[in-house]
Write a structure and sequence with these properties.
single chain; alpha/beta; Rossmann fold; Nucleotidyltransferase, domain 5; 2 domains; 6-stranded parallel β-sheet; 3-stranded antiparallel β-sheet
Length: 273
């Protein structure tokens, strides 16, 4: 495995839990990485769009976001509401034969164009279709990271061709838990919709950054992740001059501390019973 792919891979398998200095170095290196998210709309779930963006964000900044499908088909209707929310560009691919997915060829051609222009350091391919196996292999041969996202029924060949493969069943469970937590928080504290969304975004940012064994991570990195989740995020919108002030005002949901003798500030999400 080449150096770039190895760096991405080590981060991918440790994205939920890093405590060693070397892993922290990997995380810092990833801050400058660029990732292309390419979604096969015929073989992916629109309900998981937010989770897909968060997962891809673990490996770098998603500078290219595209989704492919036949937008004249009723099956693509569920994607339309999420496109603008996550800044995805739709690409039309007409279905010329009944029962045949023609999206894969358009997505493969675009992926190769992106690869040869060297615009990104890695790709996130969202599909459960084995037709992307050769594409994943070709991208890896060029020294780029390949992250796959698909169902557990995805053929083993495609899974093995990726550096990291994430099963959507795990994302579905996480999405359910997130919604349950948000509902409890909103009910117990009678939070406004915007406040509940803010708390959810901070938790998503912490998840995107990754934490140590005790759940702590750098507040500055969480701030960067928040901007990736919501480019319009600004603490002043919530009456705070700085992110640290904003978080301290929400001590029911987050812990914050500044280690002695260090200039960094750490944040941790409080676990719900």
């Amino acid at each position: 495995m080449n150096a770039v792919a190895k760096t991405f891979f080590l981060w991918g398998i440790n994205s939920y839990n890093f405590s060693m200095t070397s892993e922290n170095d990997i995380l810092n290196d990833l801050k400058e990485k660029r990732v292309a998210i390419l979604i096969d709309g015929d073989n992916a779930q629109s309900a998981l769009m937010e989770q897909i963006v968060v997962e891809a964000g673990r490996f770098g900044n998603a500078t290219i976001r595209r989704i492919y499908g036949d937008w004249t088909s009723s099956s693509m209707k569920s994607w339309k509401d999420t496109l603008n929310s996550f800044a995805f560009q739709p690409f039309q691919q007409f279905t010329y034969s009944v029962g045949k997915n023609s999206t894969d060829s358009a997505m493969i051609i675009d992926a190769m164009d992106i690869l040869h222009t060297n615009l990104v350091d890695g790709f996130c391919l969202v599909s459960s279709d084995s037709d992307y196996t050769r594409l994943a292999t070709r991208i890896r041969e060029s020294g780029k990271l390949v992250v796959g996202i698909g169902k557990q029924m995805t053929p083993r060949a495609f899974v093995s061709a990726c550096d990291v493969f994430i099963y959507t069943e795990n994302l579905v469970e996480r999405e359910r838990e997130k919604k349950k937590l948000a509902a409890r928080q909103q009910t117990s504290a009678k939070l406004s919709e915007s406040e509940a969304k803010l708390i959810d975004n901070i938790n998503q940012a912490i998840e995107m950054v990754g934490t140590d064994d005790d759940g702590w991570c750098k507040l500055s990195e969480v701030g960067t992740a928040l901007r990736r989740i919501d480019p319009g995020f600004d603490p002043r919108t919530y009456g705070a001059k700085q992110l640290a002030t904003l978080v301290r005002a929400r001590k029911a949901y987050f812990d914050i501390k500044k280690p002695t003798g260090k200039s960094i500030i750490l944040i941790r999400s409080k676990e719900e019973d």
